[in-house]
Structure formats: structure tokens, C-alpha cells
């Protein structure tokens, strides 16, 4: 029921903000996005990687009769692609239009104009990798800091570790994709990193994005019985082990991650642009 309501909200949001029938294509930043590098990776590679990951996770799930946390984060991350277009509007991002895009879905009402289909697959891969890093690497970094500063709060150290690790990996990933000419923050806010094919900002959307990392890192902390706080909130841990419980766990993680990313990206970015930043000819 909760997932159905969330799905209805997502679809309703996309429908209500769709002005494709009347929108005029905005100017395109040819100087940034013409002749992208490795177009085959963006065009076909991510679909192949996503499909391979899905098959491997499916085999693992049916053998173990439980959904592993990496698989959970992969599936939940894939469902978050819908927030990309309004987040792009808030951060002035333009995608390369040479790739496979959603035909006819060109709304510019609080959305970027060009919407690549690859975002669906890219979100699953990106957030699976990022969240597994939050799950595996961040606690180790936090433990190292705890040994260096034994009197510091473990929660504070976890938050600091999550922000630092997530920020570094996010900026590196964005750098690679903007250098490749897959997309560009055409009117980057604040300090920026420029290349011949694309530009990224060091602060927008990167800093709001860290809120997502902090929230997920805190949510990935198990209690003494191995239960996660969001699963306990919905009392999933009280269900009998089996596919019903695993389906409920997946639903809870989909809800958790979608709410977290919605707040950390499109909500903050769109409000920030509308209230404090400027209009754009490329992302009107």
C-alpha cells in the first residue's frame, strides 16, 4: 500500500509538471557537449552492467532466500531515477542529447529538457556502489577516527566519515562524466572544475547531496539483533522470515531512499535556485 501511494505521488508529480506539448527546445551548449567520449559506454555499457548485476543479485537472492544489502541498495537505487530531472533543473545540468532519450517527454517545468533513458540504469549502478561504500568503507574510516580521537562521539565520527567519503567519490565520478561530455553543469554555482567537454560545481549539488549520504549511513547501522532502524520503524523485523518479509524489507528501503534523495536533491536544489539563484537559457 505504501509503495503504491509513493508510486502514485511520483507519477502525479511527473504528469503535473509536464508541459511537453507547448515547450520550445532551449539553446544547446554545443561547446560543452559535442563529440562526447566513450559514447558506447553511456549508450549501451550501463544497460549491460545493470543487467548483469540484476541477474547476479537475482541468483544470489533465490539461493540465499534473502535479499542482501547490496542487492537491496541496487534495486532501491534504481527506483530513484525520477528525481534526476528536477534535481538537474535546480543545479543547471544539461545532458548530452546524442544518447537515447525519452521521446516526447521534454518538459521544462522545473526539469531539465533532455532526459536520457540511461538514467534508470545509471541510478541503480551508481547508488549501489555509493551505498555499499557507505555500508563497508565508511564504518572502517569512522573506526580509524575513533581510535585517533577516542573521546569523540561515534555518531559524529560516522557522519564526518560519510560526508568526506561520499563527497570525494561523488566529485570524482562527476569529473569523469563531465570530462567525457556526457553532461555538464552549464552554469555551475560557486567554485567549479572545468574541462573542454563539461563543467561541475564543487558545492551545488554536491553539498546538499551529502545529506543523503549521512542519512543512509545512519540508517545502515544495525542494532544488536541485526535489524536496521527503518525496518524496525515499519516493524518488518517482526514478520516471519520468508519472501513476504523480504518483499516488505525491499519496500521499506525503496521508501527510505526515495524520501531521502528527494529531500537532499530536488527539494533543496529547486528551492535554492528559485529563491536565491538565477534563471537560465539552457535550463529554463
Automatic annotation (TrEMBL):
TM segment ranges: 41-59, 66-83, 117-135, 156-182, 202-220, 250-276
Keywords: Membrane, Transmembrane, Transmembrane helix
Name of protein: Spirocyclase, AveC family
The species this protein was found in: Mycobacterium paraseoulense
Amino acid at each position: 500500500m505504501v509503495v503504491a501511494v509513493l508510486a502514485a505521488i511520483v507519477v502525479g508529480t511527473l504528469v503535473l509538471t509536464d508541459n511537453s506539448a507547448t515547450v520550445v527546445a532551449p539553446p544547446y551548449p554545443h561547446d560543452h557537449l559535442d563529440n562526447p567520449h566513450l559514447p558506447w559506454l553511456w549508450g549501451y555499457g550501463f544497460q549491460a552492467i545493470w543487467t548483469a548485476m540484476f541477474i547476479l543479485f537475482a541468483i544470489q537472492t533465490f539461493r540465499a532466500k534473502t535479499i542482501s544489502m547490496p542487492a537491496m541498495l541496487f534495486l532501491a537505487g534504481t527506483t530513484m531515477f525520477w528525481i534526476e530531472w528536477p534535481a538537474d533543473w535546480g543545479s543547471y545540468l544539461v545532458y548530452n542529447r546524442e544518447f537515447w532519450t525519452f521521446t516526447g517527454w521534454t518538459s521544462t517545468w522545473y526539469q531539465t529538457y533532455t532526459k536520457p533513458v540511461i538514467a534508470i540504469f545509471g541510478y541503480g549502478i551508481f547508488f549501489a556502489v555509493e551505498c555499499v561504500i557507505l555500508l563497508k568503507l565508511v564504518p572502517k574510516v569512522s573506526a580509524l577516527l575513533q581510535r585517533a580521537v577516542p573521546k569523540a562521539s561515534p555518531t559524529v565520527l560516522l557522519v564526518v566519515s560519510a560526508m568526506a567519503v561520499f563527497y570525494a567519490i561523488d566529485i570524482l565520478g562527476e569529473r569523469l562524466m563531465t570530462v567525457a561530455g556526457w553532461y555538464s553543469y552549464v552554469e555551475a554555482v560557486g567554485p567549479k572544475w572545468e574541462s573542454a567537454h563539461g563543467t561541475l560545481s564543487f558545492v551545488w549539488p554536491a553539498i546538499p547531496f551529502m545529506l543523503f549520504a549521512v542519512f543512509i549511513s545512519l540508517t545502515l547501522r544495525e542494532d544488536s539483533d541485526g535489524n536496521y532502524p527503518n525496518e524496525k520503524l515499519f516493524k518488518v523485523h517482526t514478520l516471519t522470515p520468508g519472501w513476504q518479509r523480504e518483499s516488505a524489507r525491499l519496500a521499506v528501503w525503496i521508501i527510505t531512499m526515495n524520501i531521502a534523495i528527494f529531500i537532499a536533491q530536488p527539494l533543496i536544489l529547486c528551492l535554492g535556485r528559485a529563491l536565491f539563484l538565477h534563471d537560465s537559457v539552457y535550463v529554463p
